[in-house]
Amino acid sequence: MSVIRSFCDQLHRRKRAIANRPDQPTGILLLSSGGLGDTILFSIIAPYFAMLAHKHEQITVIMQHSSTAAEFLFPDTFEILPLNYRKFIRQPIYRYSFIDKIFSRNFRLAVSTDHLRLPTVDDSLIMAADAQLSFALRPRSWPKHDKLLLENRSIYTNWIETARGMSHRMARWTELVSALLEQDIQIPKVCFDQTLMPALEKSDTNYIVFHPFSNEAERNFSLTVWLQLAKVLGKDYEIILSVGPGDLVKYPEFTPHTLYPK
Fold first, then answer.
1. Tens of pLDDT, residues 134-189
2. Beta carbons of 188 and 177 less than 8 angstroms apart
3. Do 28 and 98 fall into the same domain?
4. pTM assigned to the model
5. Cα atoms in the 13 Å half-sphere on the side-chain side of 149
6. In whole angstroms, what is the distance from residue 46 CA to residue 176 CA?
7. Residue 120 and residue 167 in contact, taking contact as beta carbons nearer than 8 Å
């Protein structure tokens, strides 16, 4: 599979070497490869990336097909390009068609927004876009892919350096857009336009939602932390545990009864 994928990329690389595109590159391409939760958060920082646009430039966001459920949170002026990542990796015709589509757009600026990048997807998309300017964060180490990630440094105009240690992805996005804008942007508050939200249901009960799990286990707070929060809240709030498929099987110590005993 990797041989066919490599051949597909090489074939398109040859096309890029001889193809003629419009003389004037225009528009911004943002690549956001996270899942649905990450995409919801990215919608908050996305307007700051829009500040990089020139007058009348189109802003296009590539996101996972499964994450387009969050599309309504993005400004109406944004174009959303859904990508089936599984097909992009496994089906050469689909892969070639998609990279050819973004190449033909002739973007002025392409930005890969994720700190943890898959070189055969994220870097391949940025390379295919062949924008006038391309930026990304210096990638977070991924032993399986570090060699190729470093080799792909030449794809980018520059890598933006990040602060040391683990950090929330919103902080990483803020580091990236601050460097590109050459402004000190503050980490935005997680808050959504209420006009986009469904009507609130009336209830006599006060609720608070705990969302304790990340797809990266090292980001999870321990059960002890959540129990301390539950203790502070006391009986004034009913706790709703927000989980994904299989989370409670993977972390059986987290149960509504444990967090909020009757």
1. 999 999 999 999 999 999 999 999 999 998 888 889 999 999 999 999 999 999 99
2. no
3. yes
4. 0.82
5. 19
6. 12
7. no
